[in-house]
Amino acid sequence: MGRKKSHPSKCKQNTQPKKLSSTKKNEILIQCDKLLRLCSDPEYSTQLWENYLEITAVLEKVKRLEDMKISGTSKRSVAIEQFLKWLQENGANYEGTSIAEFPGYELGLKAGKNFSVNDLLLQIPGKIIFSCETAAPELAALQNDPLIQHMPQVALAIALLIERHKDNSKWKPYLNILPSNYCTVLYMTTNDMIELKGSPTLEAALKHCRNIARQYSYFNQLFNNNSNPVSELLREIFTYEEYCWAVSTVMTRQNIIPSKNGTQMIHALIPMWDMCNHEEGPITTDFNVNSDTCDCYAKRDFKTGDQIFINYGSRTNSDFFVHSGFVTENNKDDGFKLRLGISKSDPLCREKTLLLEKLGFSSTTMTFLLQDSSEPISEQMRAFLRIFSMRKSDLDHWIESDKILDLKHRDCSLDTVVEDNEDLNLLSTTMSPTKKMILQLRISEKKILKRTLEFIDQ
Question: What EC designation does it have (predicted)?
């Protein structure tokens, strides 16, 4: 189980968007139609940056039409007392913990007493764990929709919007303590994204933005062209900003728990537990099916006044950056995704493809993970690189050889230079939190590349 890092933000309280004129609605639908085409055109698979710029231009028009100004905001800290009261009324056990502000994290979980490793920290009842089973029964009206059916994260995002905007939702104390914006790539500007050029994370970030733009345009058209309880509720309030908030909330906080009947695992949000920030170490949270509670135990000793951390799971900094909106230093699970391929225009493409197939490679284009370890290159990557650089005589030899697996153990070489001094110097200058996060990501990626080159030189 794992989730997100808190970031400075405000909570939205009782905001009612202005009703859009029919002219603006029609124009937004026209723009949504453009978005669907831009986000679905297969020709853009090799032109992701150009595609991103076109999508961003359309979204800027949409934002202006939707007049996406947040009104009536207040600090999340204002909602803490009501949230804790709600937890207590619903049988949650959080004795010895509280919510507090921490430098660099904004809100986090604070130890009110000494905890030893494996002590029980939190016990959250299943009835207040937010999922499509416990919240938003109105979502049943869309049960046959393909996105709702096959994309549980999307279904959970729509469920959040339903509960956020319907009257008298029992989830209001929880929703009010959630951030109203995040540091995910959905909130980054074009200038922020430019800083990712040269990083393999850029492709993942651009694809994610495109997917969310497509989903937004799809649901906007769905809610405006259909009559059902969900469409009636969300039609007037559904904006790109609202959808980014819901998606980012799910991305940064979602977890997997057993369904009520125990037949499958479902996506869910766990109140109070999701206030914990990330730290490496053992995963000490589990779902107790007998008591129907999410039980969280101390991963290490925590003293009175300490911030309580949990481990979000094994993820690279690239994954944390795109989906959770933060980067960690000295991440032992970090890696650099490197895509390698055999060009169809290569005169030896046929021989190289045949040899790759004999070695069990499923494609002539592969993504390898350079690991932040003493031996960063896998046997599979070594074999791919060797085949990539072979002459015809070598290819013919190995195609006929009965010792083909030896290719995985042969030396390979890369000719490149990694410069990281510039980024390290920039890190000491004043910059926005987003730019600093991008810089930290670049530094971590270059560190892996540098270690890889040192390993090859040896």
Answer: 2.1.1.85
Q: Which helix (H) or strand (E) holds 418?
A: none
23: Cβ contacts below 8 Å, ≥ 6 apart: none
Side-chain-side CA neighbours of 182 within 13 Å: the count stands at 27
For residue 39, the model assigns a pLDDT of 92
The pair of three-digit structure tokens given for residue 114, joined into one six-digit string: 């000494």
- Summarised one tens digit per residue, pLDDT across range 243-267 is 999 999 999 999 999 998 888 999 9
pTM: 0.82
Residue 6, pLDDT > 50, answer no
DSSP assignment letter at 91: T
Residue 275 burial (10 A CB sphere; 0-12, 13-18, 19+): buried
Nearest Cα to Cα of residue 14 among 66, 67, 80, 79: 79
108 near 98, Cβ under 8 Å?
no
In this structure, what are the phi and psi dihedrals at residue 109, rounded to the nearest 5 degrees?
-95, 130
Taking residues 125-132, what's their average pLDDT?
Answer: 97
How far, rounded to the nearest angstrom, does the alpha carbon of residue 76 sit from its chain's CA centroid?
22
Rounded to a whole number of angstroms, the CA Rg of the chain reads 25
The CA distance from 429 to 29, in Å, is 44
Is residue 346 within 8 Å of 356, Cβ to Cβ?
no
